[in-house]
Amino acid sequence: MNGEKFKSGFNTYFVDYLKNDYVKFDGRVSRRQYWMFALYSMLISFVLGFVGGLIPFLSIISLLYVLAILVPSVGLGIRRLHDLNLSGWFFLICIIPFIGGIALVLLFCLPGDEKENNFGAAAK
User: Fold this and answer.
1) Sign of the CA dihedral 47, 31, 108, 82?
2) Fewest C-beta in 10 Å: which of 20, 62, 82, 101?
3) Model-level pTM?
4) φ, ψ for residue 120, nearest 5 deg
5) 3-state secondary structure the chain
6) pLDDT at 9
7) From CA 73, how far away is CA 15, in angstroms rounded?
8) Are 122 and 114 in contact (CB under 8 A)?
9) Any bridge partners for residue 117, and if so which?
10) Which DSSP category does 14 fall into?
11) Does residue 16 contact residue 10 with C-beta atoms inside 8 Å?
């Protein structure tokens, strides 16, 4: 049963997002959508890093994965900020050493607007 839930969640939050919204920067995304995508992305990165550590010539796959997932991850982060009624430019806060990344994670943890805001209808 848990395997089915994992597969369903993986398809819903990761595969479907990559297929349908790969380079989408407008609109909104809920906390659940953001964090589920981040979780699956981190799991894949961990597995690829582990395999790359065991078989060094396969580490290129990990690099290719990171490059492939970079744009959709930024897009998802910007859409998460839109859910908070913040401009996507707030994503640049992550370039501030030490506190920037922490501040961004804290923003991503906040609940979004329940009603329509400047960036569209509430995320599902």
Assistant:
1) positive
2) 20
3) 0.84
4) 125, -170
5) CHHHHHHHHHHHHHHHHHHHCCCCCCCCCCHHHHHHHHHHHHHHHHHHHHHHHHCHHHHHHHHHHHHHHHHHHHHHHHHHHHHCCCCHHHHHHHHCCCHHHHHHHHHHHCCCCCCCECCECCCC
6) 67
7) 13
8) yes
9) 120
10) I
11) no
The two three-digit tokens of residue 31, written as one number = 């906390």
Tokens of 100: 């920037």
Q: Which two tokens stand for residue 113?
A: 């607007």
Query: Is the CB of residue 120 less than 8 Å from the CB of residue 28?
Result: yes
Local structure of residue 12 (DSSP, 8 states): I
Chain position carrying tokens 């959508």: 33
Q: Which of 11, 17, 107 is nearest to 69 (CA)?
A: 17
**pLDDT for the residue numbered 52:** 86
Q: 61 is written with which tokens? A: 């796959």
Number of residues written out for the chain: 124
pLDDT of 76-92, one tens digit each?
A: 999 999 999 999 999 99
What is the distance between the alpha carbons of residues 100 and 111, in angstroms, rounded to a whole number?
A: 19
- CA dihedral (2, 59, 36, 115) in degrees, to 10, reads -160
